[in-house]
Structure formats: C-alpha cells, structure tokens
C-alpha cells in the first residue's frame, strides 16, 4: 500500500509560527509622548488569537532603527511621517523594506500633514499597508486597523513557514536521493527528519530505527532520549503504533510517528519518532510528503542493491567456471578479487576504480572454458604443444569479453588478456612489458600468483611465508611491477587477513 494514503488526511488550516510566538510585537514611532500613551491606553486590553501585545516605543529615527534591529518579529509599526525632519517616517519605511529586507512587518503610516503626504501618492509610492490622519484617529479606527494588520501579518508568517518547510523537504529529498545503499539511506532520512522538525536538543526527542523480520522486532539504532536507554519494544509503543508495526504501515499521532520505509530481503524497516512535543498540522503534512518520497527512494535503493548483488553473483559464477576448469579450489576467484581491490586502493586508485577491478578480476581465467578437457584434466606435465594451447586461454577470455561497453566487462577483458604478461616482457600472449601492460593486468598478476602460492592445493601445500616473500622480492621488476610489489610486501598482513577470512 502506498504510505501516503496511510497518513491521516488533514485539510485543516495549516499551522504557522505565530502559535509559537507568545505575543505580538508592535512598535510606535512618534515624537509625541502623549500620542504613545493615547494609543497604548486605547488598545490596552487588546488580544488577537489569545495573544496580547508587547509595545515598543521609539521617539526618533535612531531609536526606531535600534528597536527594529533588535526585535526579530515586529508585527506592526505605527509610524509617524514627521520625526527629526518632515519625511523621516518615509525614510524609515525605505530602511525597513530595503535595508532590513523585512517585507512582513505591517506598516501603518500616520500623519498630521495630509496635504504634504496625500494618501494616494504615499500609498502607491511606498511599501506601506495603511494610512491614517492623526487628527481623525478614533479608538475604533485604531482597533480595526491594528487587528487587520495583525491578521495579515499572521497570514504572511503562515505562508513563509509553509515555504520554508517545503524547502526543507525538497532539500531533504535531494539528500536521500544521493544514497545508494540502505543503511546510509536510513541515516540520512533520520537526519533530514530532525532538520524538518527543527530538532536540535537531544533531550527533547527520541528516535529508533527498527527492523522487523518474521514478526521479531529489533532496534538497529537509538538516538535522542533513547540513546542510552534499554529499550523494551513490548511496552514502548501505543496500540496504534504497535498495529502499524504489525501491518507495515506509517502513521502519525499527536507526539509520535511511525514511518514504514519498506522491505528488503524479508526484513522490514521503520523509523519511530517521539518528538517530545505536539506535532503541528503543518509538520504532519511535511512528514507525510517526505515519507512518500522516502518510500519510493527506499524501493529504488533496494532495486539497485538487488541488481548489484545479482551482477556480482553472475560475475563470481562466471569466474568460478574458469576456476573449476583450472582445478583451483576454494574461493580462489573471490580472494583474487579482494587482493586486487586492496592492491588498487593501496596503489592510490579511487574506491570506484578499485571496485571495478574487484568485480572484473574474478574473470581472469574465464578463457579456460575454451580449452579442451584432455588438456585441462591431464594429470601429467603438459607437452610444449599442449602448453601453448593452455596459454591461449588469455586470448580466448579477451575475445569473449572484448565487445562489451560496460566498464566492468571492459576491465575484465583487459585482465583476462594480460594477467600472464610479465613486467620484463617475458610473459604471454603479447610479450608486452612495463607500463605497456595495463595497471589492472599488473595488479591481478600479483593477486593471482600470490593466491596460487599461499593456498593449499590437493596436489601441494601452500608455500611458507618466507618463501613467498623471497619469491616476490626475486621477481620484483621481472614478473611483477616493482612499485606494486613493494606495496604488496609492505601490506602483507592485510593480504593474509583476507586469505584467512575468505578461505
Ligand atoms: Fe590464467
Ligand atoms: Fe587464477
């Protein structure tokens, strides 16, 4: 089922920041002290949406600017046109809109000189929201204009917060789209949820990443208040969250929500969040939007991983065909893959390139499928003629793989072709030397020979380490690339670790 449809539909008016503001800030800018008193007294008990007004008083342009810089959410400004000069008020309007870039504060311009500041001209030329002639002011007019200014200020905050919330969700979505494997993806989703809900204090919220397999629930990761706690999943959840976990559903409650991410290899993944405060309707909407995107991304990542796994399995299976024919036992191709990857990384190649070599090197002996059974199975030493036929496996392998445009198969073609070339030019099939041999070929040559020497075979025991080191030192610059040989010998422990783990 689509997770989007699982969320509670909520078409109520979207919530806004003003619910988190305890009162409205209103600034009076006027040189006349009595005028300040007149306004404050006239609007003494005024409250809008259960929030009172905090009054700020400025008697000069400088004071007005200082207060405007200090107070972040100034809802309304009652601004006299005349302060130090006749048009000081209009200069403050420019200052608010153009220098502070505050387009939200509602400005009510008040004047004693309607003839100097005619309402039509002033309203059209300046970014003000209301115009009053001071001599005509009554309590009734003041009240209606303040309330309507607060109302439109609140609407602006709603719009702004909606815009910011959506911006967060969009950037969160682009972050999660970058992930290509499941665990980092879940980490990113968790981080983005915290950003969307503006959760910074780890003592106020708690989150869990949960994995369910065969009805067994496991906590993979804890953060916030859950971090250092022993979590008992049998008692932690409300009945509806518990139901969501049973039925693989997402749902949002007043303080908590459960996000069902999806399924991978019969394991279901969830994020459980206790926000530690009431979620606003707008936050619920944002979680819902984000959640529908994450479930799609999760599915895509699973799909990519599935393709990746299948591709690797096919590659190893292909490699094993060659391995079987050459009577290699155990995980020869897998170890060659790991050795090649390690050598590539220590040589300084990128993760991406090291991965290409890792995936391509198992196919080095794939050409052996083209060598007859008589030669492949011959227990005795091969004649010179038979040995020549055996050597052709590198060219056969190359011909099998060379037509592909895929980077891994292209690399495999090079490796199949060149893994028996020697640095001094005495190898086959082409007898090329030094850096004429592709780096991938030089890397795989070391990996392949090392594994052949170090592993036990039916017909022989693996060589002692000292003998192997001596051999590589002797063949440095002859069979093997000297630089790669040095890297290999310097990191021998890591190669032996791979051998022990992959045996
Ligand atoms: Fe080979
Ligand atoms: Fe091999």
UniProtKB/TrEMBL annotation:
The lineage is: Bacteria, Bacillati, Bacillota, Bacilli, Bacillales
Q: Which SUPFAM superfamilies match?
A: CheY-like (SSF52172), HD-domain/PDEase-like (SSF109604)
Organism of origin: Lysinibacillus antri
Give a single Pfam family match: HD_5
Q: Which Gene3D superfamilies match?
A: 3.40.50.2300, Hypothetical protein af1432
InterPro entries xrefs: CheY-like_superfamily, Cyclic_di-GMP/3'3'-cGAMP_PDE, DUF3369, HD/PDEase_dom, HD_domain, HD_GYP_dom
Please give the name of this protein.
Answer: DUF3369 domain-containing protein
* UniProt domain HD: residue ranges: 329-453
Instruction: List, for all copies, the residue spans of the domain called HD-GYP.
Output: 307-503
């Amino acid at each position: 089922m689509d997770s989007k449809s699982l969320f509670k539909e909520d078409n109520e008016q979207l919530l806004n920041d003003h619910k988190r503001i305890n009162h409205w800030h209103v600034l009076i800018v006027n040189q006349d002290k009595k005028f300040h008193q007149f306004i404050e007294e006239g609007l003494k008990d005024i409250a809008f949406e259960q929030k009172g007004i905090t009054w700020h008083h400025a008697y000069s342009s400088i004071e007005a600017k200082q207060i405007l810089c200090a107070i972040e959410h100034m809802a309304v400004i009652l601004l006299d046109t005349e302060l130090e000069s006749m048009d000081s008020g209009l200069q403050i309007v420019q200052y608010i809109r153009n220098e502070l870039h505050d387009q939200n504060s509602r400005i009510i311009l008040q004047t004693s000189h309607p003839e100097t500041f005619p309402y039509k001209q002033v309203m059209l030329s300046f970014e003000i929201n209301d115009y009053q002639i001071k001599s005509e002011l009554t309590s009734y007019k003041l009240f209606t204009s303040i309330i309507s200014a607060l109302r439109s200020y609140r609407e602006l905050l709603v719009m702004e917060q909606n815009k910011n919330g959506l911006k967060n969700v969009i950037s969160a979505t682009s972050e999660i789209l970058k992930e290509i494997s499941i665990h980092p993806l879940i980490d990113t989703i968790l981080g983005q949820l915290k950003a969307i809900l503006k959760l910074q204090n780890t003592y106020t919220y708690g989150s869990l990443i949960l994995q369910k397999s065969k009805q067994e629930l496991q906590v993979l990761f804890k953060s916030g208040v859950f971090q250092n706690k022993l979590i008992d999943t049998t008692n932690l959840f409300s009945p509806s969250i518990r139901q969501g976990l049973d039925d693989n559903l997402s749902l949002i409650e007043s303080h908590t929500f459960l996000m069902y991410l999806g399924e991978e290899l019969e394991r279901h993944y969830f994020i459980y969040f206790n926000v530690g405060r009431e979620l606003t309707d707008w936050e619920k909407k944002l979680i819902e939007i984000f959640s529908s995107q994450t479930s799609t991304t999760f599915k895509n990542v699973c799909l990519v991983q599935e393709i990746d796994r299948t591709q690797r399995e096919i590659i190893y299976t292909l490699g094993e065909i060659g391995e079987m024919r050459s009577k290699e036992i155990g995980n020869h191709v897998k170890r060659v893959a790991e050795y090649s990857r390690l050598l590539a990384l220590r040589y300084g190649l990128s993760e991406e390139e090291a991965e290409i070599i890792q995936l391509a090197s198992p196919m080095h002996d794939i050409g052996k499928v083209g060598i007859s059974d008589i030669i492949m199975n011959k227990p005795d030493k091969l004649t010179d003629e038979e040995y020549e036929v055996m050597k052709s496996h590198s060219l056969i392998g190359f011909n099998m793989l060379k037509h592909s445009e895929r980077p891994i198969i292209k690399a495999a073609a090079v490796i199949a072709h060149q893994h028996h070339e020697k640095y001094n030019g005495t190898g086959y099939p082409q007898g090329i030397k030094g850096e004429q041999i592709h780096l991938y070929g030089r890397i795989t040559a070391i990996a392949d020979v090392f594994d052949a020497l170090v592993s036990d075979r039916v017909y022989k025991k693996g060589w002692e380490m000292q003998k192997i080191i001596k051999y590589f030192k002797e063949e440095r610059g002859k069979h093997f690339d000297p630089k790669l040989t040095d890297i290999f010998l310097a990191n021998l422990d890591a190669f032996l670790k791979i051998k022990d783990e992959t045996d």
